[in-house]
Amino acid sequence: MTTNRLLLRTTRDGGVWTVVLLVAALVSTAGQILFPALLGKTLDAALTEGGVGGWTAGCAAAVGAMVLADALFERAGGIAAARGTARLRRSMLPPLLSWTAAGRHARTATGDSVSRLVGATGEAGGVAAVLVRAALAAVPAVGSVVALWLIDPRLAGTFLLGFPAVVLLLRAFTRRISDVSGRYLETQGRLATGLLEALAGRRTIAAAGTAEHEVRRVLRALPELGRLGRATWQAQTQVAGRSAVITPLLELAVLSVAGFALAAGRITVGEMLAAAQYVAIGSGLGMTTMLLGRLARARAAAERVRGFLEQPVMAYGDRAPEPGPGRLELRGVRVAVGGRTVLDGVDLTVPGGTCLAVVGRSGSGKTLLAAVAGRLTDPDAGTVLLDGVPLRQLDRPGLRGAVGHAFARPVLFGGTLGDAIARGTGAAAPGAPDTGTVLAARAADADGFVRRLPDGYLTPLPTAALSGGEVQRLGLARAFAHSGRLLVLDDATSSLDTVTEHRVATVITEGLKDRTRIVVAHRATTAARADTVAWLDGGRVRRVGPHRELWRTEPEYRRVFGAPASEVRS
User: Fold this and answer.
1) 332: left (phi > 0), else alpha (psi -120 to 50), else beta?
2) Cα 365–367–369 angle (5° rounding)?
3) Is the pTM of this model over 0.85?
4) Contacts of residue 499, Cβ cutoff 8 Å, sequence gap at least 6
């Protein structure tokens, strides 16, 4: 989708209010063109007939129509902008929340994403009013030329001689403001990224005493933002200054010709007054400049939104999972990150109901394999199957209902601690916890510390002071509450103390035998409890077998856990 098509679609999203905008703008423009002629007729009637009669009523009607039309335009513009902005934000949420790459491709930074979702959509969402005004921007100029021609063709000819200067001025302004607007929004996104990064790491910053350095880092983009902001005002000031020269010169030229025409009796005093106003309307750059500036900002914002919408969103199939124990197969899986192949030709079969520990040095692709196994990302080549059905072919409810996840640094959602655990079932539970929630918390060794809180499971999540290990246990409880046949645990016990890790690991290896478990393991004790170990090395599965056998026969395997090559354990 091109930027222009995105803007047009956003305009259509205003629905009937976009039509109201167009009608109101047409009425206002018509009144703007008719009013000078009516005013001129009123003056002529007063001078020649001694009364103004119906012409005054016509002037009043034109003014009233313009006022009402402008008021209606503002209301319709606000509603259309709200609808367009809401539609853009809803469109951006799927690519924003869909984890389709698992770090494989450079995705937009969080701060810049927020900037696009909030700022850019607001700017682009209000494009309906701008486009309607811009589409009719030439009508007053054309109407002025026609009116001048009807008064006296010489007046129209004089005006047209100087009009190219107005067009060239507007063209130069449009080019400059478009470039500046795009760079301003990009710089604003970089500033937001730095700010969110600093807020996320404020405890580390405080502990390291580097607050001043971080302030300078966050504000590094501020001078550029200020420079671009000044450039915007400079462009507007320059066009205003030049129009302040061009417009009076045009008025002087047309009024000079009108003066001779008045002296020759070809036009009346009222027509001369109307001609002066038509020149001002036709050559006035104030409104046109404002519209061009807003249109340039809307287009720059739409370009940023479009770039986000074009990011890949995971596509799901239309098949439901076949009945089965959760047998997982990876056939010839290859995944590249930043041009470097991390997983290369991985073939792996995990029988249903077994626990597989994935072991390897840092950078060996363990987390990426876990993401592929649960289809948080798709491989560049190869196939992943669950009970004989490729994951790509499964529909969203079927896939997400069949696969549960737990992570090293889980993010909790929900209103209360109980709700955060219950989200593993795919549904919110803001009230008292059900039996399943409590059992999942007990399995993750979280029930004890939750019950010690004053409100227990009803403790509001934002007010709960939780340690890293407690957050990780709640993340595990959320995964245990999931009823799927495959459970993927990506280093999900790394923050637990030895005693707690032992309890939870016992549950994972012995208490969840109704599910297939993929456990990314960094501890030898975790690998030892698994049924089988898949040892990743250099992007490939080097060996698959029980931990005891690998430890006994493979010195390099022992080094993965930091053990000396000569140490042998059984």
Assistant:
1) left
2) 65
3) no
4) none
